[in-house]
Each structure stands twice: as C-alpha cells, then as structure tokens.
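Shapes recur. One chain:

:::
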Amino acid sequence: MSIALSGTAPAVRRPRTRSGLRRFTREQPLGAIALFLISLFVVVAVLAPWIAPYDPLAQDRVNILTGPGVGGHPAGTDELGRDVLSRSLYGARTSLLIAVATLALGGAIGLVVGVVSGYFGGTWVDSILQRAMDALMAIPSIVLLLFVAALLGPSVRNTVIALSLLVIPSINRVARGEMLRIREEPYVEAARSVGCGTPRILIRYGLPNLMAPLFVMGSLLFAVILIAESALSFLGIGTPPPTPSWGRMLSEGRSQLEIAPWMTVVPGLILSISVLAFNLLGDAMRDFLDPKQRR
C-alpha cells in the first residue's frame, strides 16, 4: 500500500487560548503585566509553606524588632520576633482564600438573583428580587460591613459572609442587565418556540453569554475584597490572631512605625501591588473583550 505525500505539510492550528493570550499581551501590555503579578501572587500564596523562610508564628526572642537582613530575617522581625517576610507570604495565602471564597459565595447568589430577575424582568418576581437588592444597597457598604462583622465576631468564615454582602449587589446588577438584553435575542426566542424550558434557556443560552462581563467584574471585585478584608483585620474584627493577615500586620506595625517601619512597609507594599494588579487586569479585560473599545 502506498501513501501519497503532498508537497506541503498541513497547517497546524494553534490553540485558541495561546493565540488569545498573545493577542491580549500585544494589545494590553499593562494588563499582561498585571496578569503576571497576579499569577505570581497566586503562586506565592499556594507555595507559602515551602518558600517562607520561617514559621509565621515562630518567635525569635533574640531578634526582636530587628531590621531587614539582621539575624537572618530578610525583611526584619516584629515586636514578638516573628519574621515579617514569612508572615507577609502567609498573609497572601489568607487573603487569597478569603477572596476566592467570597467571590464564590457572593457571586453565586448574585448571579442566580440577577439571571432570574433579568429573565423575568418587569414581572412580580423581578420586583421582589430587586427591591431586596435595593434594600441591601441602600445601606452604606462600610456600615453594613462593620455591623455584620462585629455581630458575627472575628473569624475567617464570618469575614467571608460579611464580605459576600458587598459582592451580591454588584454581581446582581451586571447579571440582570445582561440578561435583560440576552432574553430578547433571536436565539432565545427560537429556543422558546421549540419548547425549551426556562432552566434550559438560562443555563444553555444565558450563563455562557454572561461570562465575559462577570469575569471583568470579578477581577475588579477581587481588589475591593482585598482592601475590605485588610480593613476588617486592621480594626480587629476580621481574621483573628495569630493567623497572618496583611491588615492585622498593618495594625500591629502602626504602634512601631517610628522605630520599625518595615513592619508596615512590607505588607502595605504587597497589598498595594496586589490591588493595583487586579484593577489593571479588570480594566484591560474590559477593553479587550469589548469590540467597541477595541475598534
């Protein structure tokens, strides 16, 4: 049996993910830098137990409030002799866990409410759901956050519950607005005409078309969650001690700011870079996924 060989080899199709990433890097250089910083943040948070030079709770009584590089501590120590760099790396782990859990809980609730409300827009279902969201949004965010966190007490679980109340209305607005547009599309009308039920339409035609705007909103909300979690920990009603947290480290370093500024500078700098990276990524993804902005 002979096999005929053509003169040219067949073209190899590049994966869409790789080509899309290259196009994103070319069109949004700041977004690409932000994506790299976020990837580094995630890697550091996941690998903190292996890359941290010391146990974040271990106390070195010989080296208390020592500066960076003294006594084998790259970023110095705090008032209890704990390594500042190790606590900052573990603080990234805590912040990542809380932010992901908050987006999962608040995003799921806000998505369900927004999709159902948008699909039944103008009906009593939409009115009841949106009046509940309006009541939640009528309370200033900081007041609602402090009240719920203080009521439930300091813990990681309660912090996630309190922060979820900030995420639900934002996701609801985006999901409802997009669903109001999607339900008028011809393919949705065609699905109704052939007898597709409401759950099938929402899952098959609604959710896939919501992913792009929700991804942008999620990136921006991630930055808000990082700041809010740090604020709660700074006030003593967020992550309980001795769990490492950027906000608690800032609070502890405030009293030692004149003699040990590294206690505040290191976690503050990491927090600022992380928040800036998520904001830049959200803006870049918004422009990249919007055809009008790209043109």
